[in-house]
Records
---
Amino acid sequence: MKASPAGRLFTEIVLEVFKLSGQLTAEGDKLTQDVQMSSARWKVLGALGRAGNPMTVSDVAHSMGQSRQGVQRLANEMVELGFIALADNPQHKKAKLLLLTDKGVDVLQQLEQKQLPWAEACAQGIDAEALQITLDTLRKLERKL
Amino acid sequence: MKASPAGRLFTEIVLEVFKLSGQLTAEGDKLTQDVQMSSARWKVLGALGRAGNPMTVSDVAHSMGQSRQGVQRLANEMVELGFIALADNPQHKKAKLLLLTDKGVDVLQQLEQKQLPWAEACAQGIDAEALQITLDTLRKLERKL
DNA sequence: CAAATATTGACAACTTGTTGTCATACTCTA
DNA sequence: TAGAGTATGACAACAAGTTGTCAATATTTG
């Protein structure tokens, strides 16, 4: 059996996704190192910020496509550091709700201000339509997994 | 400062790349678990296979966009398991060349046969042109990092 | 209501991957 | 050729992330 052109392209995309993921994590670590953060913490804090409302650890993990326990560890650290507060969950006595503290909101805004010009610079010179197609295609692929 | 459309798209793509990377690693682990392999090992073995000629650990790490030491550890494991052999490097006494053993070639072929129909299924229903644009765009982004 | 099932947080072991240090091996330049 | 600088492998500490287990809490079902 030989690979179709689409199959070959898919494989190339997979390899590129792995490579990009590593490089983006490294960039994120640089961007966050001086505010007690990291790429991993930022992703969790960002998920909370983007949701706009308190979420359980499970919810956050699901939205990130990651395991519950990994997110739990990061969340615990950030509660300790004061970026996240725990609120009682009327639905579940053990599963507390995570919400951003003022400090959490603040650091998130700082990071977004740093990230913005960087994102603009990366997107610079790339056709907006190509970016849109890329995003759509990646989402389609993700749904097939 | 507000995000341009391209900047916003870029940020969405970044999040999608993180999510996809995790899911693809999980898929790869499923595909490889019964042949003493893993996603991480497969990536190294695959890089060697794709290159077609012996490479040093540094070369492989660079081609994968990963650190030298991470690849070193995986390579050492696979030498131990007999998937990779070490050959003297006329250019450098310490930096041995990695090459696939027969067992390594064999397992790589097995995995490629498993991966092929899966890649075809994932690519199914997605426009080949969109896949090409996605690949090109990801590569452009990678070069900007 | 009671029992089976699912969800959750804590804990622990493990894999993956990065960074840093050290000693050795190589390369380049003065 | 001597010395500075760079590349490499071994080793170790750490961060990130997965899986599994256990006990406590919810939920569903008979």
---
Amino acid sequence: MTVDAETLLSAFQRGTTDLIEEKQLQGMIARSLETGTPLRIKFGMDPSSPDLHLGHAVQLRKLRDLQDLGCQIVLIVGDATAMVGDPSGKSKLRPVLTREEVEHNLRTYTDQAGRVLDMEKTEVRRNSEWFDAMGFEELLKLTTRMTVAQMLEREMFQTRMKNEEPIGINEFLYPLMQGWDSVMVKSDVELGGTDQLFNLLVGRRLQEQEEQRPQIVMTQPLINGLDGRKMSKSYGNAVGLTADAKEMTFRIMQVDDEVMPTWLLHLTRLSLEEIEQTLALHPREAKARLAAQVTGFYHGAEAAAEAAGAFDREVRDKVLPDDLPRVSWQASWGEELPLANLLKEMGLCQSTSEARRAIKQGGVKLAGEAERDERAAIGRPPGELLVQVGKKRAAHLVP
RNA sequence: GGGGGAAUUCCCGAGCGGUCAAAGGGGUCAGACUGUAAAUCUGAUGGCUCAGCCUUCGCAGGUUCGAAUCCUGCUUCCCCCA
């Protein structure tokens, strides 16, 4: 594949927040194309949180783009650094992981990243490779590369100091280690989230000190989750990379309108004009297009279209899915059971209290009819009975 | 080493010894509405054999007719001084 400098450069630029230094990058690209030596793009993975979501995909997709244009992706598995804990974006001290935990997470992690990247063409390196071999003397030497004052430049640390939150000494080590990784793999470019800027720049500094050509630093923004807040699994507003086509589509269809532009930019390969055109559509159409793009990338266009159809039927047209669970009347229920207990037994409610609430609020329907009497009792139905709780939960009760 | 503070229901965070299953916010759930499961509005939000009963406020004891609130010990965490 022949790639020209312009295409390559614009791939670096699309959706990128920081690009330091762009001039230097141009030179690197030119030299790379001239000599046929692929640029080494470093990306650090943190094996402490194995579940990847679309937020992580922003960077992974950028890497994939560059990979497709002939760049060599170097994936650093931070198994040594994970035992230190990255302070970036953390308001609290991170728990230190054991080796076993790191190893365990590693598998699932690379597994999921493989849904985006071509792992065949990716160089994977664990940084324990060099850190395990590093003696105390060398480590001490590494710590002399930066001063406490330089460390404290990070606003993160300052915020934490102001809030009287703890900062572990080990946390000072993290940026140095990440930077040292760059030295060890001789990276040309390092990619990271905007919260990583400080760490990435340390790599530049260390490489210069080691008389290497300092790496280009490029950052991608952290995208917000479905509800517009920071995407995080604990907020429940993330979409997992392992989600199947239907779940992915359904979840993307409920993003806030405001997050659509950033998602279109960072999670799809649509051109800027196409994005503009998309946003001009009816918001619902725009969202459908976004969902189709993203789901299509992970599961193929066919599965994405199928999921989109399911969304239209089940959500827009409120048709109940035909694969509803079927629950048979249990002998232990006797001839009659209070409705609240029945809902709990059928797994539609977590507790009878919750079931009672749902009934009182008119959220429970039997064969489509709302039942508002919380003391109602239900006997073995003559035939199949459709039981619904709210809009999302439903099951057939079978005699 | 010394001193000071904190631990509350899913989360954050209030809480005069009784009227506390515990304010408020978030989340979640339900209803209305709608372009969707968005936004907005309303209500609910420990459990149960549910007009009553049972179990919660770091852990273990104690004082009291009665404690999330007072005392003692323990555990964990934070801050300050050295």
